[in-house]
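## tool: complex_structure
## caller: assistant
## args:
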Amino acid sequence: MMYGGHGHASGIGAWWDAFKGLETNDPGEEGLVNQVAGFDVALTLPFRFQPIQAYLEMAGEDEAGLLGSSTPAPSKFAYVAGVFLPSLFGNAAYDLRVEWARNHWRGNGPAWYVHGTSGGGYAHFYRGRVLGHPMGTDAQDLSVQGHWFLLPSTYLELTLARTDRFSAGPSKERTDRGSAGIVGWLSENVRAEGDFALEKVRNAEGLPGSTAEDASFRVAFSYQLGSGK
Amino acid sequence: MKSVGVCQAKTHLSELLDFDRDASYDEASRVARCFT
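## result:
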């Protein structure tokens, strides 16, 4: 639940109004609120040879009557579901994750990371970046990511991802991305990261027939104060 | 400090599931990954 902020009512009374969700979402009202309701569940199967963790998180960004009734219930759901193999075939130097995410809802257009009545104030955006899944609004993402730990602190990372954006333009935009990276420590205080990515976009910005290709690399260093012990 | 090729302790599943890939050097190094 997001409420308060500059120009909006805050405090316990406004919190109670927001919690009730009544008379709080019309433009001009002080008690604007954005509510999201959902849950997550994870199932770990600790098989000795191949442990598996499956997980699901889902939440509704809007409200509608449950099964056509007048009972209010979350709607316009977004999902994140995945399978994580924390070791591969008994070898903890490797892991693998397959994850699927979707906040596209029956052609209704953007529902997540937008909030018109607050002028975007409760839209989970900060300085142009989404505070949520990087795929953004009205999208679907499928990714496969693996790690190879050369040392407990040092690893290689490979990622393949396909992202569909349904409201980028008249057509569905599809982005295929592959990246490889390494994280390691130059000393016990200096961490170094580097990665290289290739990206191919079809129907870029939702324009039919428009394509784009991109290659990028990133190098980062960070210094950790103290020993961390 | 652990070294490649030495399995110093059993790797616990919970450590792998909870592992933070942005962990500090010391925190990451506490997770035994049995390199054989």
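## assistant note: Chain A touches chain B through 27 residues (CB under 8 Å). Helices of chain A lie at 12-20. Handing back to user.
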